[in-house]
Amino acid sequence: MSKQDFLKGRGAQKNVHNRFLKDVYEKREDFLEYCRIEGEDAERIKTEYLPIFPKTIVNKVISPDVGMQYSMNPYQGCEHGCIYCYARNAHEFWGYSAGLDFERKILIKKTAPQLLETHLKKKSWQAATIVLSGNTDCYQPAEQKFRITRKCLEVFYKYRHPVGIITKNAWILQDLDILKELNKEQLIGVNISITSLSEKTRRLLEPRTASIKRRLRAIKILSENNIPVNAMLAPMIPGINSHELLKLAKTVSEHGALSFGFTVVRLNGAIGELFADWIHKTMPDKAEKVLHLIQDCHGGTLNDSRFGVRTRGEGKVAEQIHEMARLAKRKYFADKKFPKLRTDLYEQYKSGQMNLF
Hints:
- By secondary structure, this protein is α/β, with parallel strands linked by helices.
- Helices cover 33% and strands 10% of the residues.
- Keywords: Iron, Iron-sulfur, Metal-binding.
């Protein structure tokens, strides 16, 4: 594979057809040759930030495989570019591709804080943890520019409402001040995602995420401030990072994580095609082996939509991963417990009084 064939700094190496669109976009050879001669780019390379204006922001999670009741996403699409990300398929609902579009066309919900406040002021709403990043990372690079996540955290604190965060970006430490205030009231739980201890693997799987060192530092600093952290060692990809599970669990425990979770990788919808294309370009020698191992975890297919099975996997390979996880919990987390967040304060602050920010 030549350097020209690989898009450095991106996970997906191409766009795939959006299943909801009738028309198919393709680049013809004569057009590519014209661009080469003229010294022009065949497509826009830089990330675009596109404002959208949803009517609501809090989503009820109906999947029994996901450990949350409600989620919200300040951004759609994610510049982190993780090749395995299940959220890629959601970009098709917006008329874009799950491939490069997902990483380069980031939809910005500037009104998210106002929508959240409107939701929390509903008389019918009863407090239940709302998780930031149920779909795409709330601390992806766009947050440095727009600070929507920060503003949403201020709303959660204003109403003393419990909130969870899922991220793989050390930028979360920029909000340590408000996280500490939320934690004083037992209103915050943080999930830091770490999929490998190898920077080489991290750069291939998750090209625009924070380094492993910075993520471990984030776990350590949050834990030192008594902010509860769960490490998401997900997804486990047989043949790529599954052999690291024990060492990963030991490392995050030593840095202060109170618990860990994991999933077995699944490649639903367009992700199967994107992942297969990616692995043949990045790991050609082991591509077929890895794809077959993934298929062994999902009844012979990459595309597994079965509730109760799709994130756990099945078969010998998946069982080996689960056995390692059971061992890791006994060895490194036996005396630790992730606390339950409080919901009883919300009713007292529902009028929006006593805002300190």
